[in-house]
Amino acid sequence: MTIKAINTQISVSPQIRPEDMADLAQQGYRSVICNRPDGEGADQPSFEEIEAAARKFGLETRYLPIVAGKVRDEDAVAFARLMDELPRPVLAYCRTGTRSATLWSLSEANTLPLADILSQTKAAGYDMAGVVRRIANGGRTPTETVEDARFDIVIVGGGAAGISVASSLLARKSDLEIAIIDPADVHYYQPGWTMVGGGVFEASDTAKTMGSLIPRGVHWIKSAVAAFEPKDNAVILDGCRVVKYGRLVVCPGLKLDWHRVEGLVETLGKNGVTSNYRYDMAPYTWKLVQETQSGKALFTQPPMPIKCAGAPQKAMYLSADHWLKTGRLGDIDVQFMNAGGVLFGVKDYVPALMDYVKRYSIDLNFFHNLIAVDGPARKAVFEVKEPEKDVRQVELDFDMLHVTPPQTAPDFIRVSPLAEAAGWVDVDQTTLRHKTFENIWSLGDVMNAPNAKTAAAARKQAPVVAENIVADINGHSATAQYDGYGSCPLTVERGKIVLAEFGYGGTLLPSFPRWLVDGTRPTRTAWLLKERILPPIYWRAMLRGKEWMAKPEKVSAAREKAPAA
């Protein structure tokens, strides 16, 4: 008997036998649903035998037989009815458990998000890809047409990566029918939020309406994606609308998992708890920095990957710089709470950063991961996982707490056929083409290439994807290659930045000659780039397909120079 728990209320299994009833009762099950018709197999016990054995141990039983491969809409309704009336937890079984898992998935279609249904059944070992449209349609078989729309290129995500790649595609082939799928009304220049939290930018300067940025001629489908059907070249939207594509680009960004830190959501934006990772919170960061006169300021960094791995430090350095210049730093205990084991992943930039750690008297606490916050009590709990030591927890008081939230791929990506085991879109790290589905590409934060997740990386990736898609349309192999470039302008003080630029394997990839910008040390030139030059480049060049300093390198040349990843 192999029982697979979907959640605490329902488990499914292959065929069970009368002698299993004692064990089921021992495990705490209170009800059994049979979804296998009697007589389906020669060695199959009848439902009456199961029912009689179950009665001896106080288990409720119900018979809801389903012919293999023929789960009807009314069957799912009947299953939901049984789940409502039976004491839980329930064990449902058939020959393999698949029919029972399918019935549960359809019965929960109007209760749970599609991604939750897919993730729970996937974790139990059952793939619901065959009924995903029915789940998206509220558990009912769709009666509308096979497709609602069709485009040459469909782009999932209207962030920096999505709009940039759409513009780069049109710059190369203007007759393409392209659609961007994104439910958001507002597009944000997220790299600017560090500057908002440091009192340099206004939050409003980092936001524009999505409609004003979608390239002319590109269709904007204002909807959320529910699921992918790559074998049918289809994207399923909320409400079970079907969008077909010739080629697909996946770049929806990351999910900020605020709920993974206990108590964080309830206290964010008050009680001294803030984060530059949210548009509406970055101004509160600056407010706290101005108001904090003394006490303890904690700055957290969760386990990788996160977008802009330097952002947690940027907030800390700008805050400490303000306190130093206003004469308050001596009364403020600044602590960096990093779940990782190093200050920065590329060693060439660490010496310059350590100079500022010493200047601001910052205490570095490695292997400390924030797991809970009590805002009213001003307490933060960290799980400490130091090498070769027992895991422990520490509780710290705080007067100001800047939180970088845990981050994952969006739910609809993690449960999709596009994702690898860790939940990221599985691409070739040089061509950015999907490893399994040849008409799918991915860029930005959601794919699994081992590069820094930054807007600067997307700026270099968009032309590569565009170039390779057009080559594919023309019947050619990939012509452009991505070298892993990412950039992290580390704002170490107001007016100076350590401009970290690197690629795969930590190889330094500076954009400027060393005499102009030495990226391994703080410079005012790099600050000018961050404050004055990069924002207009983002709005007026990158998002419009003008590839300033981002022209894709040809595969042949790139292979000769590419470092080992």
**Fraction of residues in β-strands:** 15-25%
CATH superfamily of the largest domain: FAD/NAD(P)-binding domain
CATH architectural name of the largest domain:
3-Layer(bba) Sandwich
Q: Nearest-angstrom radius of gyration?
A: 27 Å
Structural class: alpha/beta
Regions with little confidence, pLDDT below 50 for 5+ residues = 557-565
How many structurally independent domains?
Answer: 3
The total count of strands amounts to 28
Q: What kind of sheet is the major sheet? A: 7 strands, mixed
Q: What's the CATH topology name of the largest domain?
A: FAD/NAD(P)-binding domain
CATH class category of the largest domain: Alpha Beta
What level of helicity do the residues show? 25-40%
The whole-number mean of residue pLDDT values reads 93
**What does the overall shape look like?**
globular
Amino- and carboxy-terminal Cα gap:
45 Å
Summed up, the helix count is 16
Domain FAD/NAD(P)-binding: 151-268
Keywords: Transferase
InterPro entries: BLH_phosphatase-like, FAD/NAD-bd_sf, FAD/NAD-binding_dom, Prot-tyrosine_phosphatase-like, Sulphide_quinone_reductase
Protein name: TIGR01244 family sulfur transferase
